[in-house]
Amino acid sequence: MPLLLLKDLPRYECLLEAAREFPDLDPSAAEALLHLLRTSDEAYAVSSRNMGDHGISPGRFMVLMLLWHGDQIKAAAPAGTVTCACSPHTPAELADNCGVTRATMTGLIDTLERDGFVKREPDPVDRRMMSVRLTAKAEEFLHGFLPGHFRIHSAIMSALSEAERKVLVRLLAKVQQQCAALRSDPAAAT
Amino acid sequence: MPLLLLKDLPRYECLLEAAREFPDLDPSAAEALLHLLRTSDEAYAVSSRNMGDHGISPGRFMVLMLLWHGDQIKAAAPAGTVTCACSPHTPAELADNCGVTRATMTGLIDTLERDGFVKREPDPVDRRMMSVRLTAKAEEFLHGFLPGHFRIHSAIMSALSEAERKVLVRLLAKVQQQCAALRSDPAAAT
DNA sequence: AGCTGATAGTTAGGAAGCTAACTATTATTG
DNA sequence: CAATAATAGTTAGCTTCCTAACTATCAGCT
């Protein structure tokens, strides 16, 4: 029986057995997908535990990085160049980039503001909108946190050689494309 | 700037640029990890949307499958063989197998019981424990749902050939092993 | 100018995750 | 046997996700 994301992944033979009862079950597909989900879950757990140790959650970290990315673009832009339009700073833009709803983003910004990482300001042009800015505290936090964060990433992927990483990226891109197609047309799975 | 799980993955060139400021950042490691997390997220989204369409969440589905697995083992066992000991049926066992806390499992079982999918019974041997059982409604639901569920899995992984799936599983197993090592010894990342 | 429709951020309620604490039960120790 | 420690499931509170609805503001149309 294939069981999703369980502590112990089912062995391939179990999948073959289950395929006898369920003709729709493709053993190698199930095995590959389970491994994909499970490995990602494990990698995510390693990374997010490091974040947790530093008092930040993955979601909040993503918001901080997005805002920081905006700041970096501004800092690199030649004087007088208007670059604000392309960097997210409103709750809606942040939500869109993070792939969450505006309602969820409100909560994330709430806790970030509460902890002194961001400030909300009314937009001067459109009174419906807020503008979200990083505080100095957040920049300080990121500078102290990011080196270790990247080292964790490197440590995780040190299991693979450069060539293996390239192969992995290529295969994953194929799966990703397929998922995008399935999300556009769910009927394709039937 | 590498940004985790954003709508658009950063291009490799952006990672090279960022590596100039952060020597701890390994571009190919970051790229591979981001692709892994992103692809898994997309695959998970396709699968869980199908579940949502059928009124079940991934977490609840996992509980049902675990209990169902226990039932299948019982049904396959020769008469008189005591097999209950190896199949999870208490909230703690279910939680352990799902990788969540007992507190979380209480909530999952609550809603499953509310919707008529499971029944709680006091354990006859140990008064501290409950025993969780599938209802006929749950078995009926699974029989109707599983074929389509497996077809989705096959559709997702149809992007890869059998050989490519084998390569993917091999690479993922390496990463998985590394994650397990890092979780045992976080200092190894520094 | 006034009305209607669209938009942004927030609120309310629910689900699912966590931690810490709790109550009831069982196991262990002296 | 009594006291202490361990265990199981639940509760309370928080965070993060969702949907639907809301209020305030802006845009478009007549």
What does this structure look like?
- Two copies of one chain form a homodimer.
- With 190 residues, chain A is mainly alpha-helical.
- Chain A has one domain: Winged helix-like DNA-binding domain superfamily/Winged helix DNA-binding domain (Arc Repressor Mutant, subunit A, Orthogonal Bundle).
- In chain A, 64% of the residues lie in helices and 5% in strands.
- Chain A has seven helices and two strands.
- The first copy, chain A, has helices at 12-21, 27-53, 58-76, 91-98, 102-114, 136-157, 162-184; strands spanning 118-122, 130-134.
- A two-stranded antiparallel sheet of chain A has the order 1-2.
- In chain A, a hairpin with a 7-residue loop joins strand 1 (118-122) and strand 2.
- In chain A, helix 1 packs across helix 2 (27-53).
- The radius of gyration of chain A is 21 Å and the shape is globular.
- At the A-B interface, helix 2, helix 3, helix 4, helix 6 and helix 7 of A face helix 2, helix 3, helix 4, helix 6 and helix 7 of B.
- Chain A binds a DNA duplex (30 and 30 nucleotides) through helix 5.
- Give the second-level CATH assignment, the architecture of chain A: Orthogonal Bundle
> Helix fraction of chain A?
55-70%
Oligomer: homodimer
CATH superfamily of chain A: Winged helix-like DNA-binding domain superfamily/Winged helix DNA-binding domain
The profile of the biggest β sheet of chain A is: 2 strands, antiparallel
What is the number of domains of chain A?
1
Based on CA inertia axes, which overall geometry of chain A fits? Answer: globular
Rounded to the nearest angstrom, the radius of gyration of chain A is: 21 Å
Mean pLDDT across residues of chain A:
84
Low-confidence blocks of residues of chain A: 1-5, 78-85
Give me the side-by-side strand order of the main sheet of chain A. 1-2
- Proportion of β residues of chain A? 5-15%
